[in-house]
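Supplementary Methods S3. Complex input for the 5-O-phosphono-beta-D-ribofuranosylamine-bound model.
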Amino acid sequence: MTLRLGVLVSGSGSNLQSIIDAIHSDRLDAEIKVVISNVPEVRALDRAERAGIKALCVDHREFDRREEFDERLRRLLVEHDVEWVVLAGFMRILTSRMLEKFKNRVLNIHPALLPAFPGTDAARQAIERGVTIAGCTIHIVDAGTDTGPILAQAAVPVFPEDDSATLTARIQEQEHWLYPRLLQCISEGRLRLQNERPVLVGLPPASGMIRSPNIPENEVHGEEAPT
Ligand code: GRF
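Predicted complex, serialized as C-alpha cells:
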C-alpha cells in the first residue's frame, strides 16, 4: 500500500533525502505529500523542491503558543492528505493534540540506542559516557521526549579516536539505511499492534552477536596483553 507521508524537518535533510532516493529507486512504496520545516531556508527544503515535492516553512517563532504552531502543522498535514508523519531531524516537541490526530502514526529517528541518551547531543553524550556501541533508533512518538515504542535500531561501533562528528557520521549512514526500510515494512503491512504494543511482524530474527571492541578469540592484535 503506497504510504502517504508528511516529513517534518529542521535542518540538513539527509534522512529526507534517503527517503526520496528510496522512493525514486522503487525501494519504498510511498509518496511524500508535503515537507514542512520550522526553520526557514534550510537545506531540507531545497532537497524537497529539487525532487518536485511541496515544501513549506512554518516558522515556530511566529506563534505565541506551542499549541497554535502545532495546530497549523496539523491542519497542513490533513490538507495534504498525509497518513504518516515522519520526523527527520525535526527539532520541536509536538503536543498531544497532534499526536492524537495521528495516533501511532508519528515516527522519529534518534541518533542513539534508546532508551540511552535521549534528548539533544546524543553522540556527544555517548562518547562522554564511554560506550563502545552506539547507533540509531526509530520509534513511534508519544508525549515524552524520545520515549515512544521502539520499532527498529541499528548499531555501530565507537572507536577510541572518535569525536562527536565522526560518530554522528557513522550513525547517520545507518539512519539513511534504516528509515526507508522501516517505512517499506510499514507499507507492506508489517507493523501490527500486539497487546497494544506496535511491533514489526514477519521478519527474520537478527542473528549472531554485536561486539565492540571486536576482541579476537585467543589473542589481542597489535599489543602484548598485560601480564
Ligand atoms: C539525524 O541524525 C536524526 O537522528 C536527528 O537529527 C538528525 C537529522 O539529520 N533526529 P538530517 O536533517 O536528516 O540530515
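The chain is about 30% helix and 20% strand. The chain has one domain: 3-185.
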